[in-house]
Request: fold
Amino acid sequence: MIKKIALIGPESTGKSDLSEKLAKHFNTEWVPEYARTYVATLNRSYNIDDIVLIAKKQLEIEHEKEKIANKFLFIDTELIIAKVWAEDIYKTCPDFIIQELEKQRYDLYLLTHPDLPWINDGIRENPHRRKYFFNVYKNELITRGFNFAEIKGMGECRLHNAIKIINNYFKL
Reply:
C-alpha cells in the first residue's frame, strides 16, 4: 500500500524542490504542483473557476502517479492550499474543493516553514504574507486532525530533516 505524503506551505518554501528530492531519495514518484504549469500558460488573470479546474487536474495527476509509485508518493500541494487560496482571494470556496477535501486523506503532511528566502518567479504573489499563510495552513491541519510535521532548514539540511521525520514517522 502506497503511503501518501503531501507537502503544504506558503509560496517559495521549497515544496517542489523538496518533493522531487524526497521522491528521488525514496526511489518513487512525486506529483508536481499543477497550478504553476496552468497559471504560467494563461494569457489572463486566473479566476475561481480556474482554481476548480486546477484542483481537478491535480487530483487526476495524483491518481495516475499513485499507480506507479513505489511505497511512497510525494504530493506537491493539495486541496487545503486550493481552499485557503480561494477563500483569501474570492472570500468563498467552491463546493467541489470542499467536498473533495472532506474525502482527502494523506498519511502525513509536511508543512514547509517560510525560513527560505523569497524567490520571485513571476507567478508567486505574496512575499510579505508567508508567515500568515503558514499559520493558516497549520491551523487547517490541526483543526482537521491531520498528522503533520513542520519542515525547516536551508539547503540539504531541509531535505535531511524531512527524511528523518519520514523515517521516524513510518518507522523505517
Summary: The longest helix spans residues 48-68. Strands lie at 3-8, 29-31, 72-76, 108-112, 148-151. The chain has seven helices and five strands.
